[in-house]
Amino acid sequence: MSKVIASAAVKNIGVIGAGQMGNGIAQVAASAGFNVILSDVNQKGLDLGKATIEKSLSRFVKKGVFDDAKATEIASKIDYKIGLKEFGDVDVAIEAAPESEALKNSIFSELDAVTPEHCMLASNTSSISITRIAAATKRPEQVIGMHFMNPPPLMKLIEVINGMATCEQTFKTCTELCDVMGKTVAVSQDRPGFIANRILMPMINEAFYALMEGVGEAKDIDTAMKLGTNQPMGPLTLADFIGLDTCLAIMRVLNNGLGDSKYRPCPLLVQYVDAGWLGRKTGKGVYEY
User: Fold this and answer.
1) Is 105 assigned a catalytic role?
2) Among the options 95, 99, 141, 159, which is catalytic?
């Protein structure tokens, strides 16, 4: 029988990974009133994550969403730690590490050892099997997918994904937490890419094929999709924002998991990643920044 905590009792949330998703999730959790530990593998990662949160809170103040006092209160709820040794009192752990199954399995195995037995273990994976991640722990019934959209402080959606062993109480705790955080839930089956990326990533991949084949220049491909289909940004701009390495990793999960050639990563996307042109985070992707 699962010992997972009820949502009303959750006070402390640990977030693993201080990158663009992790720091955003930490901000969302702190904004909802939770005490947060944001963890990364080194001080540089933590410093970058903290700076990003401070800039984000400043933008919210400038937009009049809340005042300086509220921003200071939110920031004070986030503690920054290297590693997972300080996770002994967390009620919910949300992993937001890079999209590598081996890395995530290693993190969940360590979380299983250091977190209390009532702790819910969630992964922000955008494509990897929750069932396989859960198998790295001795409490698979308390493991669930909690896929925030990028950037978490602005995007309203969280995809919730049960693994094969996820119990009803874990699902209940997770969905209720999403509500407390002001998010809307879409429930997906544990299939490669879940819902959003199963549909989004093939579109981005096809945009790279169109670019590679000379169907249009990058700006024209983006303009056509932005104005022709009423998207807030074109697929190539979005790919740069997400990170081309992340897009490629998800396409490989789709290709390997579903075995259909329509999910084959575009060779041009592969080349960009091989060149280290990963998008905004490196200053160059499809576009230069």
Assistant:
1) no
2) 159
Task: Tell me the per-residue pLDDT of 118-140, one tens digit each, with 9 for 90 and over.
Answer: 999 999 999 999 999 999 999 99
- How many CB atoms neighbour CB 277 within 10 A? 18
What pLDDT is attached to residue 281?
Answer: 93
What pTM value is reported for the model?
A: 0.91
What is the residue-wise DSSP string for the chain?
---PPPGGG--EEEEE--SHHHHHHHHHHHHTT-EEEEEESSHHHHHHHHHHHHHHHHHHHHTTSS-HHHHHHHHHTEEEEESSTTGGG-SEEEE---S-HHHHHHHHHHHHHHS-TT-EEEE--SSS-HHHHHTTSS-GGGEEEEEEPSSTTT--EEEEEE-TT--HHHHHHHHHHHHHTT-EEEEE-S-TTTTHHHHHHHHHHHHHHHHHTTSS-HHHHHHHHHHHTT-SS-HHHHHHHH-HHHHHHHHHHHHHHH--GGGPPPHHHHHHHHTT--BGGGTBSSSB-
> Quick check: is 76 catalytic?
no
Q: In which band, very low, low, confident or very high, does the pLDDT at 1 lie, cut at 50, 70 and 90?
A: low
126 catalytic residue (yes or no): yes
**Which residue in 31, 162, 197, 205 is the catalytic one?**
197
Looking at 126, 162, 188, 205, which residue is catalytic? Answer: 126
95 annotated active-site: no
Tens-place pLDDT, residues 207-237: 999 999 999 999 999 999 999 999 999 999 9
Provide mean pLDDT across the span 25-46.
98
Q: Is the pLDDT of residue 50 over 90?
A: yes
Q: Which of 2, 147, 188, 205 is catalytic?
A: 147
